């Protein structure tokens, strides 16, 4: 009788582990909206799977997203100036509402480069210079502001 109990327990464990593995491999879709603390939709929020940043999307103009995930994936929602938020994907959801909270500490050193890409100073390669807001507020002697700013920093070509 002791052997029958052991065989029964082993078969029970194997069936439970098979069910768990099937759930973990199951791919499904989650979708919803990302909003700020005032419930305003947030376009341009990065939505990606933690440890798989290449598998992600960006929220549309209404703050909506749709992403295929596997059971147990951690979905990260991040936007500059806001605290990243994680969501554990355990079931399909079509009406998630993710609220991002402001993070005033993260805005101390942000560099805007080229075509609107934003990165921190520490991760930039190349020359970096700072133009103070006070320098930009003083009137330029020319009819247009852009050419008047070309001399305030080396290699600054304003158009």
Kindly describe this structure.
- This protein is α+β, with helices and mostly antiparallel strands.
- The protein has three helices and nine strands.
- Strand 8 and strand 9 (117-120) form a beta hairpin.
- The relative contact order is 0.13.
- The model has no long low-confidence stretch (mean pLDDT 75).
Q: Widest sheet: strand order?
A: 3-2-5-6
Domain count: 2
What is the CATH third-level topology name of the largest domain?
Immunoglobulin-like
CATH class of the largest domain, named: Mainly Beta
How do the SSEs run, as a string of H and E?
HEEEEEEEEEHH
Structural class, from secondary structure content?
A: alpha+beta
Summed over residues and divided by their number, the pLDDT gives a mean of 75
What is the rounded distance between the termini?
88 Å
Give the DSSP E fraction (strand runs of 2 or more residues): 25-35%
| Percent helix range | 10-25%
**E-strand count:** 9
The low-confidence runs, each spanning 5 or more residues with pLDDT under 50, are none
CATH H level, superfamily name of the largest domain: Carboxypeptidase-like, regulatory domain
* Major sheet details: 4 strands, antiparallel
Shape: elongated
User: Helix count?
Assistant: 3
Short recap of the structure:
The chain is of the alpha+beta class. It has helices at residues 2-25, 133-137, 145-148; strands spanning 27-35, 46-49, 52-58, 64-70, 74-78, 85-88, 93-99, 110-113, 117-120.
């Amino acid at each position: 009788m002791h052997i029958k109990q052991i065989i029964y327990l082993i078969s029970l464990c194997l069936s439970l582990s098979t069910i768990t593995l099937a759930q973990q491999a199951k791919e499904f879709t989650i979708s919803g909206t990302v909003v700020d603390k005032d419930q305003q939709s947030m376009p341009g929020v990065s939505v990606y799977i933690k440890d798989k940043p290449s598998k992600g999307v960006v929220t549309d103009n209404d703050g909506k997203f749709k992403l295929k995930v596997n059971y147990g994936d951690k979905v990260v929602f991040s936007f500059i100036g806001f605290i990243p938020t994680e969501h554990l994907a355990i079931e399909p959801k079509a009406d998630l509402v993710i609220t991002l909270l402001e993070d005033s500490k993260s805005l101390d050193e942000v560099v805007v480069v080229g075509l609107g890409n934003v990165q921190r100073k520490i991760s930039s390669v190349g020359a970096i210079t700072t133009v103070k807001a006070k320098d930009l507020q003083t009137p330029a002697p020319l009819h247009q502001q852009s050419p008047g700013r070309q001399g305030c920093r080396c290699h600054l070509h304003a158009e």
